[in-house]
């Protein structure tokens, strides 16, 4: 391999594939390699036989579950915000032409032992059984403040500088109780723990606005969308995009050893005795284990069921957020369910995931609050994986390493990592100034 590439990307996880696509569109010469013989890396989707092989070794799946090929079980299950950053990236790169999406039926929150629909607007707040009458009025005033807030129009700020006022101080102005704060912070603003309360309120207000805008986009029961046939379609779509712009793909390349020069800068990647030269390397943590540190662990259960999750209005696709305080934990738990309506299982079958940041070494016990909400399951698998973050200095070694996927069942944190890596690599921001209204649901998806 005598050619020199601007960037070699190692691993075909979603983050790596998005970056490969964006860099190829920018005109960079990209070589994309993976030690696996399939796309998706950690974020792949498995059929039933692959799922059994991964978790049950040589056992065969029971025939009663239906054909293996009808299953697409995500290994990193996540929904997309309909107005979120990932959708903007998809539209900006025109990847939407390779994919079909469908709205997700519902967004719910666990509160005082019960599952409730998440109220996202002032009108929904008035109807919600989550709050008593007086609390509803207070919450409605807060929602109206958030809906009307515009960064560029001081008249909407209510005399507050949200870059200085903390979320706790803003919420205190409206006198909301802890339960209301819990679902606003975790189920609407999608914070993963309670640190946000002492941080500037602007971030929380922007997150709540994104939720409401995403909800309005489809006039559906949730702000989320999800691709037909599962998330495994996404890395392949970005791989196709990269190829259209001249990117080269090589799967099933063993070893993939990153080479460095005397100054400690990356200079190439060696596989099967051949070295491809490059200026920069993008990869997931598994390719450069000595440049990352462990930052946590995700515990997850995967369940195959013959019914929707109880108390979610028979939703065929749904997210339920279990805020940390409701469970006496340090971090939230997430429940994700999809079914044959998104072509990820045969007719009549549902796939549910329960995931959280692990706080001990017993996933069966730790995930019990989420599993208890599922009702009877046909089969259940437990899994844990370590999360890693880079500790290198990319400006010195030209290695750009993604952070492992977290336990959240939405894509906001994933895409922010991609966008920050893109800026480090190219020195510029991704252009996300797409008109989402022009790219309306009907036309795009």
Automatic annotation (TrEMBL):
GO CC annotation, single: cytoplasm
Example of a GO MF term: Rab GDP-dissociation inhibitor activity
Highest taxon, organism lineage: Eukaryota
Matching Pfam families: GDI
SUPFAM superfamilies (alphabetical): FAD/NAD(P)-binding domain
Entry-linked Gene3D superfamilies: FAD/NAD(P)-binding domain, Guanine Nucleotide Dissociation Inhibitor, domain 1, Guanine Nucleotide Dissociation Inhibitor, domain 2
UniProt record, GO biological process: protein transport; small GTPase-mediated signal transduction; vesicle-mediated transport
Membership in a protein family: Belongs to the Rab GDI family.
Name of this protein: Guanosine nucleotide diphosphate dissociation inhibitor
Organism: Iris pallida (Sweet iris)
């Amino acid at each position: 391999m005598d050619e020199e590439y601007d960037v070699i990307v190692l691993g075909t996880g979603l983050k790596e594939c998005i970056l490969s696509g964006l860099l190829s569109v920018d005109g960079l010469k990209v070589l994309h390699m993976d030690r696996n013989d399939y796309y998706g890396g950690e974020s792949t989707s498995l059929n039933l036989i692959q799922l059994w092989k991964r978790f049950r070794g040589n056992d065969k799946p029971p025939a009663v579950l239906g054909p293996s090929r009808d299953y697409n079980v995500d290994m990193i299950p996540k929904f997309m915000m309909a107005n979120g950053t990932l959708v903007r990236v998809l539209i900006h790169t025109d990847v939407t032409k390779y994919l079909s999406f469908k709205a997700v039926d519902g967004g719910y929150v666990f509160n005082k032992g019960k599952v409730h629909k998440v109220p996202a607007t002032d009108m929904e707040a008035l109807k919600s059984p989550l709050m008593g009458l007086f609390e509803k009025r207070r919450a409605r005033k807060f929602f109206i403040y958030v809906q009307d807030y515009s960064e560029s129009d001081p008249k909407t700020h209510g005399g507050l500088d949200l870059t200085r006022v903390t979320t706790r101080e803003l919420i205190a102005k409206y006198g909301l109780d802890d339960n209301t704060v819990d679902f606003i912070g975790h189920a609407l603003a999608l914070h993963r723990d309670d640190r946000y309360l002492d941080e500037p309120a602007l971030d929380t207000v922007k997150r709540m606005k994104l939720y409401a805008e995403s909800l309005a986009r489809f006039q559906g029961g949730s702000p989320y969308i999800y691709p037909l046939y599962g998330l495994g379609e996404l890395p392949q779509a970005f791989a196709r995009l990269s190829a259209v712009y001249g990117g080269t793909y090589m799967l099933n390349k063993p070893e993939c050893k990153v080479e460095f020069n005397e100054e400690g800068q990356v200079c190439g990647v060696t596989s099967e005795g051949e070295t491809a030269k490059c200026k920069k390397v993008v990869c997931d943590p598994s390719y450069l284990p000595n440049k990352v540190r462990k930052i946590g662990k995700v515990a997850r259960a995967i369940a195959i069921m013959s019914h929707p999750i109880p108390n979610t209005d028979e939703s065929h696709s749904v997210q339920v957020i279990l805020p940390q305080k409701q469970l006496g934990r340090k971090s939230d738990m997430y429940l994700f369910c999809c079914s044959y309506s998104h072509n990820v299982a045969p007719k009549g079958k549902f796939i549910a995931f329960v995931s959280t940041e692990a706080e001990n070494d017993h996933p069966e016990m730790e995930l019990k609050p989420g599993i208890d909400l599922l009702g009877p399951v046909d089969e259940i698998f437990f899994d844990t994986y370590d999360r890693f973050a880079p500790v290198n200095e990319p400006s010195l070694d030209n290695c750009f390493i993604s952070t492992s996927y977290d336990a959240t069942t939405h894509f906001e944190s994933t895409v922010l990592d991609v966008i920050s890596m893109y800026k480090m690599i190219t020195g510029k921001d991704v252009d996300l100034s797409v008109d989402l209204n022009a790219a309306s649901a009907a036309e795009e998806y």
